[in-house]
Amino acid sequence: MPAKVTVKRHVPLSITFTDPPVASIGQSEEEGAVTGTSDFDDQGRARVEGVNEGTLTLYAAAPQGKLIGADLVAPAGEHLAHLLAWAVETGCTASRLLELPFYHPTMEEGLKQALRSICAATPIALPADHDAGAPSGG
Q: What are the pLDDT digits (tens) for 70-121?
């Protein structure tokens, strides 16, 4: 039997490979944190694939909107969790992530609604070159 090797993760990450996947990344909501939520019921790629169920909640430190964690049960949740762990690890803000390209149609577009909610709850303006966002992409 192989020996167990314990490693310290930089950002706590837990994924349960169910349908849809469930994941927790980083810290949950703490005092002074703001949240943003995305619903996958009307998300374009999820709708096309017939898996348009689930939700994602992002947690960010106020007032700068720096992502600190997320909880989700969503289609492609294992992939979203991995990306969000990177975002938390590198200190990304909601605004910075919205400056990055979101290709269409992808499940990653489902993050935009939650990111915009965090920007709206903080004194951070949305990036000037972002799309207005509505389904189908998110």
A: 999 999 999 999 999 999 999 999 999 999 999 989 999 999 999 999 999 9
Q: Are 107 and 134 in contact (CB under 8 A)?
A: no
Q: What share of the chain is helix, strand, coil (3-state, %, to 5)?
A: 30, 25, 50
Rounded to an integer, what distance in angstroms lies between the CA atom of residue 15 and that of residue 62? 26
Check: CB of residue 67 under 8 Å from CB of residue 81: no
Cα–Cα distance for residue pair 73/132, rounded to 1 Å: 25
* Interior/surface letters 11-40, b for 16+ CB within 10 angstroms, e for the rest: bebebeeeebbbbbbbbeeeeebbbbebbb
- Are the C-beta atoms of residues 94 and 65 closer than 8 Å to each other? yes
What pTM was computed for the model? Answer: 0.85
What is the average pLDDT score of the chain? 88
